[in-house]
Amino acid sequence: xxxxxxxxxxxLGLPLTKRVKESRVLLVGAGGIGCEVLKNLVCxxxxxxxxxxxxxxxxxxxxxxxxxxxxxxxxxxxxxxxxRQFLFRKQHIKKYKAxxxxxxxxxFNPSVNIDAQSGNIFDDKYDVAFxxxxxxxxxxxxxxxxxxxxxxxxxAADVPLIESGTTGFNGQxxxxxxGVTECYDCNPKPAQKSFxxxxxxxxxxxxxxxxxxxxxxLFPELFGTSEEDSADVTVTEVDNVEEVAKLRIEAxxxxxxxxxxxxxxxxxxxxxxxxxxDIERLRGMEEMWLxxxxxxxxxxxxxxxxxxxxxxxxxxxxxxxxxDQAIWSLAENLAVFSSxxxxxxxxxxxxxxxxxxxxxxxKDTLDFVASAANLRSHVFGIPLNSEWEIKQMAGNIIPAxxxxxxxxxxxxxxxxxxxxxGASFEQKGVSKLTISHVAxxxxxxxxxxxxxxxxxxxxxxxLNSRSTERMITTQNLVPPQPDCAVCSxxxxxxxxxxxxxxxxxxxxxxxxxxxxxxDFSIQADVGIIxxxxxxxxxxxxxxxxxxxxxGNGFLTVVDEGDEGxxxxxLSTSFTPNxxxxxxxxxxxxxxxxxxxxxKHKSVAESNGQAMTTTEATGDASKVAAHFNxxxxxxxxxxxxxxxxxxxxxxxxxxxxxxxxILLDD
Amino acid sequence: MAADHHAVPPPLQDIPTxxxxxxxxxxxxxxxxxxIALEETHILLINNGPGVTGVETLKNLVLPGVGQFTILDSTxxxxxxxxxxxxxxxxxxxxxxAAETAxxxxxxxxxxxxxxxxxxxxxxxxxxxxxxxxxxILVTAPIDRNILAQIQTHAQALQIPTxxxxxxxxxxxxxxxxxxxxxxxxxxPDQTATTDLRLLMPWPALKEFAKAKTAGLFEGxxxxxxxxxxxxxxxxxxxxxxWKEEHEGKLPESYAEKTEFRKLVRSxxxxxxxxxEACAAVLKSLNPPTPNSSVRDILNAPETQNLDATSQPFWVxxxxxxxxxxxxxxxxxxxxxPDMKAQSADYIKLQNIYKTKAREDCAExxxxxRRLEKGTGRSPKLAIDEKEVENFCKGAAHIHLVRGRPFQVxxxxxLVSFGDRAKAMAMELTMPDSLIGxxxxxxxxxxxxxxxxxxxxxxxxxxxxxxxSGADDFEGDTEKVTGIAHKIMDSLIKEAGTSIEDPEYxxxxxxxxxFCMEMxxxxxxELHNVASLTGGLVAQEVIKALTKQYVPVxxxxxxxxxxxxxxxxxx
Lengths: 665, 571
Prior knowledge:
The structure holds 2 protein chains of 2 kinds. Chain A has helices at residues 6-12, 14-22, 32-44, 55-60, 97-108, 128-132, 144-157, 197-201, 207-223, 241-258, 266-284, 310-321, 330-350, 363-379, 387-395, 402-428, 443-447, 504-515, 603-606, 613-636, 642-650, and strands at 24-28, 68-72, 114-117, 136-139, 161-167, 170-176, 459-464, 472-476, 490-497, 520-524, 527-530, 553-559, 568-575, 588-590.
């Protein structure tokens, strides 16, 4: 009988096949790409216990690094997943993706080792030590925040990451390794689109303006968290200051109406407030309409002839809401609006303390937003849309198909082969493999010394299956951006016994003694806790003050001396008992030897990757300039609320108190 | 679902909600008409070799809801199958692979019907009208060359799109046989490419509107507020008039003239957003609305020019458009207006001006269609739907025609001919990014199978021997396959009537040789990952062929998993 993995061994060669089988890999996300990656990993033998290599290998491997595939996903299964997430069936709807993925994949191959975890990758238990337990991490995520987080964790753990994503017919795969390639954050990601507040609230001209109004202003004011407490609207230069002030008063009035919720006149009160009174006020601002069409006032009563009792309107609205591909008439929109207000009011009254949030898949909230947006569009002479179209705009729906996921996931795992092949040469010191039947490889992949050859010849891969000529193309991986705030620092660990009484002073002393810091600052998750002008916190305990927490905490040490060494990021973790490493405080830096190159040298250079001098110098001066500016600012400001500053530092884009309307939900 | 395959396609609103929700993310790409086309399809997979690519392709078609599929495969599941094919389980061992994979694939989507045929290929194909139930055929290598030739003959007669797929180790390839005329109206061009505002050929209503909006602009009489809200379309029309006055009635044509013209627009106001928009639009919007060569080819195609009573609607409408084009020297106006800075009322007016013109153009084309229907004696039952004409008019500048070409089926001891493609393919040999070498390696692989297998009638489908499959075959087979590949390469160069000199010639030879060696090393085995990727590529093209949306591969796609890249060749 033929061996189960004959095909794999023949194509990959025995050394790589062995490595693949012994590997321990993490898959973050079990959605569209994740299901496909899991299938490919299972069918390529990743993390399957070595069986025919005998017991010797199994005994060499500690429990912590047991070969297996770990899948983490916090989501549950939705009906709209089933057209591509092939490990899930109808009966799995509402169950955890990770668990069902394991269950289905194991049916196909019971001998495979899968550890499924229905958790949030941001959870404390997924700390740096957790990430360090893997040979390779696959990102199969659908959002920026989680991608950036895993990127940072992999940098801290120094584990290679394969990042992937799809939109419609397009896809992309990128391998990331600390000090070798660009990281996910080396290139700024496009900012979300926001609109000036007056466009949204006073002078809309496109359907999207009305949708944003309904979704991000009216809905939260009535059923959710009021605008002022959450992310909101950008006040831009073009906005009229007086108008902005009036808009605040308008929002206040809406809060009063919120008090009528549950009463039969609630829908009418809301309707007349936003489509009659507010519009009448706008119409009164003559100068606004000199060159624009005046908005049309709508009044609930004007539809009275077409309805008898409010009960009927609700019923009619409910029936109409099923026809989401049709463009509703004005009266139909009013009926859907009434029924949605009714449904949402009942839900709010049933559980008063929990504000509702817009969710494109929550039909009541979508009905509300679609009908309110359409009514507003009518008021301003803007074309109406079907609910189906509004759903795409309001929910920021990205088309997704099975083929793109299959292609992108396969490309991810192909890159994994290359990285593992590359890693095996690094570790075993093999520079070149001969081509033969038993130890095959692509010699040009391994010995190619050309620029851009890194991670075993891994490439940045682009998919565009809509194209007919160049469906899959590649680009060389690029060395890290020397000024990247995320990957240019040196990452190390700070361990502390969970019962330690160590103070910030202890840490400062440790850094001074062990690493020769003189003029420096320390930033924790809560903000800047120490700098040459800030010594108020020195006596505080590291743990009680929340500077070190269990899980994913980071402390950033910035050298402010003339020498200007690169930033040091310390990932913090608890050790169970007081160790003897430092009898005073129990604080322990890992590794013992930390080399902090000067900022003039890039991190890449310190890792043996060549960088051109001109580039490095240019960047160094830029870094220095930024540095001085930052220091000056820090010195000028009084440490009033460390929290506030921490926030401002984290977010590159500083927004005014009115914030920006986010299209993403 | 199978029962109402031939029912009248339901309108968009009538797709039941749960199904619509399940398919929501794909409906946003190919719409209800694409979905209906998919659901009316019955695909036949003729699965050979390790068979992973075929099954992976079907997975990607079962998920989006293809109507039915049939797997023809007489292989019995072995241990090796279990290691590489996700759609088999331990209990499948020793059972028919067709039945087992069909069963597990069907679990993916209860709306899809799967069937398995386990009889040997050669007896299956000997039956009468055996391919008529199917709309599309997938064939995976290795396959007896005579049977492949027969399948091709049937597919051509029935005009069924057929795919011939290879997947060996890190490499894969597929060729698509489409009907000799495969027209596509819905090509989904890039949104940026579809904007057609006819600024060089404005009609009276548009001219008047622009004039009214820009009145006083030249004299500086517009208020700052009004000036900042003149739609950029009007700004460009205004400055074009000014340009014509200064240039003897000529429009800016060359790049230099357009750059000069842009300066003129910028001089109107250096800061306002609408002026920025106008400047940004100069290079891409000031092009004469002439159809590209592939559209002109369609308008002049024999099928367009020689209509009869049963011509496909596509050709009748193409002829009606051609008549429109001859009369007006432009295609019908699509009518869409991009977002721009403007007061809403003006923007809506502008939209209406374009929409009205588009409707008028479409009405004229429709008139032509009706006249052509009458002239050719078309039965009123076959009357062309107005919607179809409208859709065609909107996309007229982007319609596409693929002329399907047959596969190259190797014959033992006889070198394949490249015919009219020889010159182009010989040129590919020396292009650094081309994968023609990989294509030749696959031809050589097929040739090896043809010369090393016992006749199918004696040994059955399993009689096929692929290079590198025996324990000690590697070196000998590498030499054989490389030898055949080099012969094919030389004959291609000769057929093209060209020559390649050293050192380039040796480099090309080496490249072909390294493809062959890698291929032999895989011993006919499939790497799951590459099979899965190939299944993605093939399924994507199947969807294009079935929905008649997007432009399909014409006609061969190669994938090199070592370099992670694809290339498309017209063989």
